[in-house]
Amino acid sequence: MKRQDKQLIAAERLEVIATILHEKHVVSIQQLSRDLHVTPMTIRRDLAELEKKGLCNRTHGGAVATGRSIYRETPYTERELIMVMEKRAIARRAAEMVKEGDTIALDSGTTTLQMARMLKEKRHITVITNSIYAILELYCCKDIKMISTAGLLSTPPFPNSGKGDPCLVGPLAEEVLRRFRPSRVFIAASGITLTDGISNSSFEEASMKRAMVEVGAEAILLSDHSKIGKVAAAIACQLSQFHTFITDTGIPHEFENGIQKLGVNLIKVTPEP
After folding, report:
1. Rg (CA), the chain
2. What angle do CA 246, 99, 137 make, to 5 degrees?
3. Tens of pLDDT along 32-77?
4. Top-level CATH class of 2-65?
5. How far is the C-alpha of 119 from the C-alpha of 44, rounded, in Å?
6. Residue 124 CB-density burial (10 A; 0-12 exposed, 13-18 middle, 19+ buried)
7. Global pTM?
8. Where are the alpha helices (DSSP H) in the chain?
9. Domain 76-269 belongs to what architecture?
10. Among 27, 66, 74, 209, which is 20 to 30 Å from 105 by CA?
11. Using an 8 Å Cβ cutoff, are 165 and 216 in contact?
12. Domain assignments of the chain as residue spans, ordered by start
């Protein structure tokens, strides 16, 4: 538990530093140490991590921004209105993979919520999820058995930001999840790169995604092309851990080549009109 708290604080601090870099272009180790109430050594490690991600170049006593930035996630209610046609097409293709008698796990996210809506006509399936909205969507479906992971209700990665997904997270949620072996798990992401894999603005949500991938016999990543090339503060898992990636036809050609080299099955769908 203590270890998770420390990592969560580190993830928050990384985005704060990245934001300052983006705004001021140049940062000082001593000034960041005073402002963030941590030691200069901690700031040096943070800057080294940001440099690995290509976000800055370290200098004597500080760092200079490179122009790349950590993705700051928009509020869930706004994300529901973005790339809707692409998300529906991806969700429909993913739902086609679910057969009668299957036990699946469904991650939180706006694309996986679209998938939950596509599952309503399925018969005799079991859905394990930490998504509050997915539970509400499927609650009245008599042929679908719903299992909630329990856990803590997620909080936004930054106070009063209105960001983050309405979902259940934390050690209890992960412990419940690890009692099951779903045939497939369906995962959403805030950011996707070939180097960092999938990432999320909340460490707790990233940790839950990682646990879900670990318990599933087959992991399927669902994301529209707008998430590609973005890096959020907390890394969840690598792309090589996924069996399949379902996305839309807007995927960059270079990324398509890269993911196929990793051995991931790529499915491209055409956005619905």
Report:
1. 19
2. 75
3. 998 888 999 999 999 998 888 777 888 888 888 876 655 556 666 6
4. mainly alpha
5. 48
6. exposed
7. 0.74
8. 2-24, 29-36, 40-52, 76-79, 84-95, 110-118, 132-138, 171-177, 203-215, 253-261
9. 3-Layer(aba) Sandwich (3.40)
10. 74
11. no
12. 2-65, 76-269
